[in-house]
Amino acid sequence: MSKNEIEILGxxxxxxxxxxxxxxRLRHTLHQGGMSREIVREVFERGNAVGILPFDPDRxxxxxxxxxxxxxxxxxxxxxLTEIVAGIIEQGESAEQVARRxxxxxxxxxVGDLWPMVRYLSSxxxxxxxxxxxxxxxxxxxxxxxxxxxxxxxxxxxxxxxxADAAAMVEEGKIGNAMTLIALQWLMLHRHEVMRAWRADRxxxx
Length: 206
Prior knowledge:
By secondary structure, the protein is an alpha+beta fold. The chain has two domains: 6-45, no CATH class; 49-204, Nucleoside Triphosphate Pyrophosphohydrolase. Helices cover 24% and strands 37% of the residues. The chain has helices spanning 70-74, 95-107, 163-171, 178-200; strands spanning 6-16, 20-28, 39-45, 49-56, 61-68, 80-83, 85-88, 114-121, 130-137, 146-147, 156-162. Strands 4, 5, 6, 7, 8, 9, 10 and 11 form an eight-stranded mixed β-sheet that branches. A hairpin with a 4-residue loop joins β4 and β5. The radius of gyration is 20 Å and the shape is globular. The termini are far apart. The mean pLDDT is 93.
């Protein structure tokens, strides 16, 4: 028996609505040897996601969005969250295609270069979702207004924000969702590298 082994005893769909929930019956190897007893776990299936932080290196601004989130409301938090652009990967789409589509739909902007940031599991204890983050090069002049797809009930306020103000929001604990926090912290770590590269190569400006 290999060191890390999983035995799936059964799998069934227990809910299929806006999202899906699957129930697993399984056993797995233990750190001290042998196999666990049968474990039953429900997994939230919502597909894989792409997050994009629009950044204008010439103006040193990020473009943020604000929208209503039912999960935040259910958690007792302010349900109008300051976020980055994001979307679910549909069948046949690449992460880069999703990034470009979502930037257009949610902000009305055109994105140039896409700089891969990180990939991570959003909540591996109970969800299968994997998130891929990009920094997207945009021209932030004129960014603003309300965007989104009406048939998806999207009501998205768009606003540019100086990098220093966005970094201050992170430092002051004013960003309350993981995707946005991770993306802004990545930019805080890599901003000088990005600025050097993108300011030196203005041909990729949208």
